Amino acid sequence: MYLKNTVLLFLLAVFSNTKISVGATADTKWSFLNWNKDSAISWEEKWKIDHWAYPRDHQQDITIVNDPQYETIKVLRVTYPKDSYNPSSFPVGGVGFYAKPIPIPEKARIIKLTYQVYFPYTFEWKLGML
Q1: What mean pLDDT comes out for the span 39-63?
Q2: Would you say 12 and 85 are in contact if contact means Cβ atoms under 8 Å apart?
Q3: From CA 105, how far away is CA 35, in angstroms rounded?
Q4: Lowest mean pLDDT among 36-40, 68-72, 119-123
Q5: Rounded to an integer, what distance in angstroms lies between the CA atom of residue 96 and that of residue 18?
Q6: Whole-angstrom distance, CA of residue 81 vs CA of residue 93
Q7: Looking at the predicted structure, is the pLDDT value of residue 39 above 50?
Q8: Residue 34: predicted pLDDT
Q9: What's the rounded Cα separation, in Å, for the pair 3 and 73?
Q10: What is the pLDDT, as a whole number, of residue 44?
């Protein structure tokens, strides 16, 4: 299977402090704590993006920006245009990609992905807008 042992990430809003761990050994842990020193191309290399679930032409929806809470830290902002709700319908919003930042052993039973997501205080959850 093409996507075997690959982490699929569908990102929602702003996120940082991403960590992936498989088991408890040092060689199966990976972290990407912030975006301060990375350009669009270098973060893609560090994440070892294998395949884009949403075509690259939708990358206008992702930008490296100042963290809304801590302006000295950079984060990845992911946006969704109005009426975007599903990657198989139009308009497509957000971003989705397959990444292999660490090797995932065949015998792995637990894989943990953690990340932080920020939504502005003014975000209307029922309406999905600011």
Answers
A1: 73
A2: no
A3: 28
A4: 36-40
A5: 15
A6: 6
A7: yes
A8: 63
A9: 32
A10: 79
H/E segment holding residue 111? strand 111-118
Per domain, the residue ranges of the chain are 7-118
Query: What is the Cα–Cα distance from 7 to 49, expressed in whole angstroms?
Result: 9
CA distances from 111 to 36, 53, 91, 98 (A): 26, 21, 32, 15
Q: Which of left, alpha, beta for 5 (phi over 0: left; psi -120 to 50: alpha)?
A: left
Three-state DSSP state, 94? coil
User: In which band, very low, low, confident or very high, does the pLDDT at 8 lie, cut at 50, 70 and 90?
Assistant: very low
pLDDT tier for residue 51 given thresholds of 50, 70 and 90: confident
Take residue 19 and report the two structure tokens written for it. Answer: 């960590």
Could you give the 3-state DSSP secondary structure of residue 72?
coil
CA dist., res. 87 & res. 25, Å (int): 36
First to last CA, the chain: 40
* Dist. CA 128–CA 36, nearest whole Å: 29
Q: What is the bridge-based pairing of β-strands 74-78 and 49-52?
A: unpaired
With a cut of 60, say whether residue 47 has pLDDT above it: yes
